[in-house]
């Protein structure tokens, strides 16, 4: 990859002797080369925003298809408004390019932004191996005056106790010669550019004051929102993780309440909606499970690495992970009432990604639902307009038009993609008796289902919906 900015001066910001105005001028005129590591759902929008602001970004990704597509001006991330056009513009004007060689990026940038995956292992331990690899790569090219900014979500204390020593060891430099800060990505897929531009404040925490100063200056140019500087890097890491913990616990509360709906004999969704009119109440929405590689994973960034007991976090995880089973039990009970076994049933799952419009299947509820149904020898089909392959799922793939050519005993709405709004429910039929429709997300128009002669159960709705 040729360096498209080799002719311009190469400025660094950490411990810069220039005035703040000159530093900002350098940042905005392409004199501060930025390297972004990880060009995925979050990294590509972030690299684009950096390139739009600085005009000088080299992205690094180990996936050659990602790099090739980007260097052709194409956007591989689906469902991000404005991103394809922005990427095309930035690549054509030389503000953004990419390499598969993180070492090249490490030599190129004086600002290094890390936004690579931070998953968990099958044993629910944080897996920071990718972060470690990138840290070592950056360390090998780190120079005095550089700054490294961790945007990926990591367990608290990771930057101070894992990333810092690794950078110092790989570079032979120390904090004070280079900077290190945390600015966690707080964006949601599907609205990434809007969020990064400034839907809500960016949070900055530095290993030292100069790192915090430089990172505050950089994000002050990147976002229109406030930049909130917190005490240190660990606090910034904790802010991000706490947001996710709050969400997982609150979804678990909604799910537990939803499982009580029939015994309560009410529409729990209605009760939640009205309870939330109280400003101190923000009960989330029940569903067939909690997916994605954020919310179901972040609790383990606190449960696993620390000694302090975390019973609430673990219970919330257990409640949310029980929801696919709740769906399967509901299906079994419905068929049992007809004297039919799940092993004789044909079941269609609508929506396999973890939420609508996002091409991500990690921890998707449909994975567990299909697995548990298949384990009981049910015949399981799945439809998802966002997915080319459904190899990870225990089911047979159907296209949306194909579902009206077959008969099912039940249809489960797991993830309500907008394409499903075109389904003609009166065209769906069961080989004999009433089709059973399980609406996991309160996404359906109930009269359209019941007018078509189907039986409808919505998670959280215990009795008949009020008049
Ligand atoms: N997806 C979200 O909604 C979201 C929101 C906020 C924060 N985050 C956090 O952002 C980080 C990245 O998440 P994402 O959703 O963009 O992941 P992603 O899986 O969409 O993309 C990750 C990218 O990193 C690349 N990569 C993997 N190993 C690499 C390496 N060694 N060097 C360079 N690139 C490498 C992959 O090829 C991929 O393109 C994670 O820490 C995540 O927790 C995600
Ligand atoms: C704290 C927070 O908001 N973080 C957001 C979150 O974004 P996300 O893409 O992971 O999506 P979510 O909307 O959190 O959904 C996750 C799963 O929970 C299900 N769900 C959701 C709400 C509900 O009331 N009931 C549910 O059942 C849903 O169906 C899906 O399966 O994490 C990103 C990375 O940290 C953040 O950047 C982003 O801000």
UniProtKB/TrEMBL annotation:
Domain UDP-glucose/GDP-mannose dehydrogenase C-terminal: 348-446
Enzyme Commission number, as recorded: 1.1.1.336
Gene3D superfamilies per UniProt: NAD(P)-binding Rossmann-like Domain
Record InterPro entries: 6-PGluconate_DH-like_C_sf (IPR008927), NAD(P)-bd_dom_sf (IPR036291), UDP-Glc/GDP-Man (IPR017476), UDP-Glc/GDP-Man_DH_C (IPR014027), UDP-Glc/GDP-Man_DH_C_sf (IPR036220), UDP-Glc/GDP-Man_DH_dimer (IPR014026), UDP-Glc/GDP-Man_DH_N (IPR001732), UDP_ManNAc/GlcNAc_DH (IPR028359)
One of the protein's GO biological processes: polysaccharide biosynthetic process
Catalytic activity: UDP-N-acetyl-alpha-D-mannosamine + 2 NAD(+) + H2O = UDP-N-acetyl-alpha-D-mannosaminouronate + 2 NADH + 3 H(+)
Keyword set includes Transcription: no
Keywords: NAD, Oxidoreductase
Enzyme class: oxidoreductase
Domain of life: Archaea
Molecular-function GO terms, alphabetical: NAD binding; oxidoreductase activity, acting on the CH-CH group of donors, NAD or NADP as acceptor; UDP-N-acetyl-D-mannosamine dehydrogenase activity
PANTHER family, alphabetized: UDP-N-ACETYL-D-MANNOSAMINE DEHYDROGENASE
The family this protein is said to belong to: Belongs to the UDP-glucose/GDP-mannose dehydrogenase family.
The protein's name: UDP-N-acetyl-D-mannosamine dehydrogenase
Source organism per UniProt: Salinadaptatus halalkaliphilus
